[in-house]
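Example 3.2
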Amino acid sequence: MATNGINSTTNSTNSLFGAERTSTSTGKTASEDMQARFLTLLMTQLKNQDPLNPTDANQMTAQLSQISTVSGIEKLNASMEKLLASYAGTQNMQAAAMIGKTVLIAGNGMSLGDNGAVGGVNLEGAADKVTITIKNADGKVVQTQDLGALPAGINSFIWDGKDGAGSTAPLGNYTFTVAASNGDKIIKGTALQAGMVNALTMAKEGVQLELSGKKSVSYSDIVQILG
């Protein structure tokens, strides 16, 4: 009687999964080829088992579970690849549609043009008083603007370019800080800077958007589209 059938077949079964990745010469997929090999080995194992010491049913169940798991992982990986490719294509189209639009990103810069400047604040809670302090490149306060009460979340605002004395401030780059409160409670507020999307490029890390001032940001850095 062939008492070595079980061990030799088990060893062959273990090597079966290593061969899965490279066996494509028959025109079948790696998964199909692996399943065919497994069935052949299983039939050989059953034919050569010792009648007085048959193959352990638990061992056979484990081997069947292995082949099912490996096949399932292959299908899952293939589905994920398709899903990621579809997501990337959708993201590219959305990014392309943003060219010419003004967006908000993290930052406290403001660019004053002929039509004023745009900025944003992200509040962790509703505030009954929100104030922004605008400074020039030298760090001198140019204007303190009261935005009034604002809800929690992202809010945008426009600075008309006037300084504290009512005169028109020089065109150029400014910075601003945010102070918010609700009664006696301080509300945390984060400054958001605006920029117009002029172009987009494809990089290894994903879509990169070029904003006015030649600032490059990731698509995921955009927190709001202003239009």
